[in-house]
Amino acid sequence: MSDATASEERVIAPVPRITLQAFCETPDVAATVQAAAADRRMQKAQVKVQMGGAPAAVETFRHNPTPNVVLLESYGDRGPLLAQLDALAEVCDAGTRVLVIGHVNDVILYRELMRRGVSDYLIAPVAVLDVVAAVSELFSAPGAGPVGRTIAVVGAKGGAGASTVAHNLAWAAARQLSLSTVIVDLDIAFGTAGLDFNQDPPQGIAEAIFAPERLDANLVDRLLSKCSDNLSLLAAPAMLDRTVDLTETALDALIDILRASTPCIVLDVPHLWTAWVRRTLISADEIVIVAAPELASLRNAKNLYDTLRQARPNDGKPRLVLSQVGVPKRPEIAASEFAKAVGAELAAVLPFDAQLFGTAANNGQMIAEVQASGKVAETFAELASAVTGRAEPKRSKASLIEPLLAKLAWRKAS
Hints:
Blueprint: H1 3-7, E1 19-24, H2 27-37, E2 46-51, H3 53-61, E3 69-74, H4 78-91, E4 97-102, H5 107-115, E5 120-123, H6 128-138, E6 149-155, H7 162-175, E7 181-185, H8 193-196, H9 205-209, H10 217-223, E8 225-226, E9 231-234, H11 252-261, E10 264-269, H12 275-283, E11 286-291, H13 295-311, E12 319-325, H14 335-342, E13 346-351, H15 354-363, H16 367-370, H17 375-388, H18 397-413
Parallel strand pairs: 1-2, 1-3, 3-4, 4-5, 6-10, 6-11, 7-9, 7-10, 11-12, 12-13
Antiparallel strand pairs: 8-9
Helix pairs in contact: 2-6, 3-4, 7-17
């Protein structure tokens, strides 16, 4: 199984700001640890990898402070390893956590390591995600709930419909999959999430970003605007009273707080390429790229797809959505040709429907509220199921009648 496939099947919490020093004995393990250090979940950690194993660690820490985590590779048998660990204990600070990668499957050795306070013992060969998970679990509270899943939606070109996809995807996750969901509108100057949900909250994401010293879970909870039982909105002010020049890490604390309390976070990412946008996309659990079937979108989608794939070697591929397909009299790139040129399968194809999308936008509604039983609403539900890993629950007979009634009401109104 590849690391990218495995990452879709396990939830690994991001590693906090820690220091880690690894002392390896073989080039293969050293390369694996180095690759783990480059994983998006380890981006806050400071990692140093060197050779020499436990003896090098003992010598290093005789004269230097110990990091939060020491990772040791041992190629030897039980006796030498335990002796080296005893020597390491004499020079290590009490709060330092130790991970050991060994080449011997020995139950007695494992028990002795645990007795000496070693946090975990991994048997080589190890995969990149095994190392990331082992480090992550050192800082996950026992009994803590699963970390929230972040879904970043970005347009390959301005006007491709990324915000529409993000908002309807979040609505489907909350309404049809019964997931507690938050939409975060990151287009601070021109965001449309408030308009699309017919909300005008007095506060929003600006208060969280521009006052980091006040940011905590209570503040974020006060800033959220309730859209429905399972759906909340962190709206953009959409005002030009100040410029938005964010630092690369400006969103880290906010997203960490949301992940700790909300199962599904949909990030409506503006069509920009700045340090903070790149970091937000790379850090997300799922990425959805929205493009229109024309040349500029194709070029940009290809660049985005390749860049994000290269930066996220241990994750699943970004999902590609083709939007606004079938504009009358407009020459278009066929969906199959578009997907082939990008090198990706299409996760969804959304038709151009001026009446449907225009009605929803002007009324502050989602597509499923305007045309519940339509193909477009079904497409959004399927996309939400795919990116969240949740299947839509079976509905009762009474709930099956609701889409029909909504469709009849929409036809009567139009």
